[in-house]
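NAD(P)-binding protein
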Amino acid sequence: MAPLAPNALVVVTGITGYIASHTGLAALKAGYRVRGTVRSLSKAEELRKAYEKEGADVSAEKLEFVVLDDLMNADKFETVFAGVDGVIHLALPDPTDGDYVQNTIASVLVPLKAANKVGIKNFVLTGTSFAVVTPGNAPTALITNKDWNETSRQQYESAKEENKQGMLSHFVLYAVGKQLAEKAAWTYVEQEKPSFDLTVILPDVNWGPLLYGKEALTPSWITNLLRGDGSGLFLPALTEWYIDVRDCAKLHVLSLAGGALTGQRVWAAAGPFGWNQVLAILRKNFPAVADKIPGDVAASPLEPCPWKIDNAPATKALGGWIGLEKSVVETARSVGF
């Protein structure tokens, strides 16, 4: 498809989320008009103020919020997508409401079909690194955008039906749901030849400043260390690659533009990290709470992360990545440290 024109209208679903809030801001700064979906309007004005503080034009002509409280409702998506040129779909279903895997698949296929019906030009879907590789594994081959997380999928498929929602970990269900949803999206595009190009962004661990509100899951891994709590780190299984949330947002927006990223699976991962690297950064930059910061973790084949990921397309598109230290430090400072 052709690149979106300046001032094109773009929908960002779930815009009050951590990555989504930055994506909305990046879209505004790129010159798009933004329609953000929210489950309720309670956080919308708080986010508008945060955008204004970041220097974005938040006038009614540039930014609007609409309620979308049902990710399985085709009619609601068609209404939200009316008059829109591009969609960035980040919203996820409630993990406590029914079959998470099947709901995740539906929450992707329903908006894809709605986007095709109204004639969207470009559709960007947020995937996950978990759809490609399993945390805690150490593959020696180069990880590319052609790979899939077979380990988690096999765990899910081999589990007894009654255990699929109960005993399997949230991470397995998340990985499988996102993987199967993404595969369903590619199958839909291949078979139906819709009006739009589909791009899937594959983020790994997101750090970087919060625009407003409380810490999301991955930023809390940083801030909890400064509070003296290392219990939530799941070491060493979650030693992965990182990406600053601002770079992640830019990749979503760049994928709308009809360039080299459009129509691809795009690794959103800046580089590997180890927890001892993170701990050293925190001790250096926050000496006032250094005595609270946990000690180094034990040596491990996974410390730092040994993965080799082909992130060359994203590196070229961005022209470089925000570094680990900047990302970690600005995560903490954004919540008052």
